[in-house]
Description:
This protein is mainly beta. The protein is built from one helix and six strands; from the N terminus they run ββαββββ. It has one domain (9-91). The chain has one helix spanning 43-49; strands at residues 9-16, 19-26, 56-60, 63-68, 73-77, 83-91. Strands 1-2-6-5-4-3 form a six-stranded antiparallel sheet, with no helix packed on it. The chain starts with 8 loop residues before the first strand and ends with a strand.
Amino acid sequence: MKRKGFPDCQLSFLEGDRGAVALYRTRQAGLRTFRGIGVDDTLERIRQAYPEGRVASMPLGKGMLVVYPIHALAFRLQPDNRIFEWGLLLSW
């Protein structure tokens, strides 16, 4: 679902036996996290901005997905470790 004012944002839902997840993601260069991270930033920059908390990562296509559950953030990285898209991750 796209919302007016955020043309490159998408809202996705996944449901399963153990709960549900919502991911509101963007590729829009102008949008940033509270700590200033956005599209085209590097994995190193993410680690500097979010040094605390547990991190989960997994290969995804030719890049990887990095998730910070404590901050409810997910970053999709390209093979050069730059952010391709990022989003807010909620689970219940």
